[in-house]
Write a structure and sequence with these properties.
340 residues; alpha+beta; Aldehyde Ferredoxin Oxidoreductase,  A, domain 1; Aldehyde Ferredoxin Oxidoreductase Protein, subunit A, domain 2; 3-stranded antiparallel sheet; 9 strands; 36% helix; disordered C terminus; binds iron/sulfur cluster
Length: 340
């Protein structure tokens, strides 16, 4: 582990932390370095080098692009930072004035109000109506059970608490509670990737799939799209349960979704092959055999969450982004209509 303690930097053995899941390792690191320490860390998926592994801190993930596999390849479990200094603000009065204006603008925005109330899932209904909701590995753009997965439905049936990044008044993230367990999310991208793209409409199965990815430390978009891709392979008879360690990968099967995700995270059995992602898999099952590979993006990343044919603005911007399939940095190919 790389430990940064004010201006002292050292490498320390990861010891028992190697092999721990994300939440387990975070708790252990905080116990070891104190409550003010923060860590960027990887889970078992990053340790064994899954290309879809991310880097995690609390409920946030640097996903896509496989940064977790980069840390894993260097045997680096975590970067731990602890400091005693403060943050110097050059112009405290100007900062306070700017903050006041920004907060006022946020309070007056109805889309922001929806985002706070129904999370990023608030866009699912709109995307479904537009025919752009990835469904069964992008074979369709509308999901029959989409009404069950809207932000209103999640809030009514699953979410028990709102969560915000530090200092953010929007609190778009949500927590689900089941018994003694508090589970994260999910957000829109996860709902589509492990949900509609796999034909799964069971909200708790989607929450559990999100949890598996968060604990093993890999990206829900890449992982969910890969399972959707495998389900299409299964649908078309290119693979059978015998190829998938006995898993019947039928559309909508929560059991298949959760089992395959666990195997991918642990790098166990067929999971080690599946965690290579859709591009590697699609090379074995070429397009001319009838298989759609729409879940596959450039640079070995899985496409982000809008099916191209349903939204005139979606087909090229994300795949043509400087960082493959990035939704944060991309160039729009046409100008009509607001960004959903
Ligand atoms: S800063 Fe965090 S809580 Fe605020 S809108 Fe962005 S993701 Fe949501």
């Amino acid at each position: 582990m790389l430990v940064i303690d004010d201006d002292r930097v050292s490498l320390e053995p990861a010891g028992d932390h190697w092999g721990q899941t994300i939440s387990h390792a975070e708790r252990a690191l905080r116990a070891r370095y104190g409550p003010n320490a923060e860590a960027l860390l990887i889970g078992p998926a990053g340790e064994w080098g899954a290309p879809m592994a991310g880097v995690f801190n609390r409920e946030r993930t640097a996903g896509r692009g496989g940064a977790g596999a980069v840390l894993g390849s260097k045997n680096l479990k975590a970067i731990v930072a602890r400091g005693s200094g403060g943050v110097h603000i050059y112009d405290p009065e100007g900062y306070a004035e700017g903050l006041k204006l920004a907060l006022r603008a946020l309070r007056m925005s109805s889309p922001i109000e929806r985002l706070g109330k129904h999370g990023s899932a608030n866009i699912l209904e709109l995307i479904n109506v537009a025919g752009a909701l990835p469904t069964r590995n992008f074979q369709a753009g509308q999901f029959e059970e989409a009404d069950e997965l809207t932000g209103e439905q999640w809030r009514a049936a699953v979410w028990a608490q709102d969560l915000a990044c530090w200092g953010c008044p929007i609190h778009c993230s949500k927590l689900a509670k089941r018994g003694d367990w508090t589970l994260d999310g999910p957000d829109y991208e996860t709902i589509y990737a492990v949900g509609t793209s796999c034909g799964v409409d069971d909200k708790w199965a989607i929450v559990e799939a999100n949890h598996i990815c968060d604990e093993y430390g890999f990206d829900t978009i890449s992982a969910g799209n890969t399972v959707g891709f495998v389900m299409e392979l299964y649908q078309r008879g290119y693979v059978t349960a015998a190829d998938l360690d006995g898993v019947e990968a039928t559309w909508g099967s929560a059991h298949a979704l959760l089992t395959l995700l666990r195997k991918m995270g642990a790098g166990e059995g067929v999971g080690r092959q599946l965690a290579m992602g859709t591009r590697a898999l699609s090379r074995q099952y070429p397009r001319q055999r009838g298989l759609r590979d729409a879940g596959q993006g450039p640079g070995d990343a899985r496409l982000p969450p809008q099916r191209g044919e349903g939204g005139s603005r979606w087909p090229t911007p994300s795949p043509s982004a400087a960082r493959a399939t990035c939704t944060a940095r991309r160039w729009w190919s046409c100008s009509a209509g607001p960004t959903p």
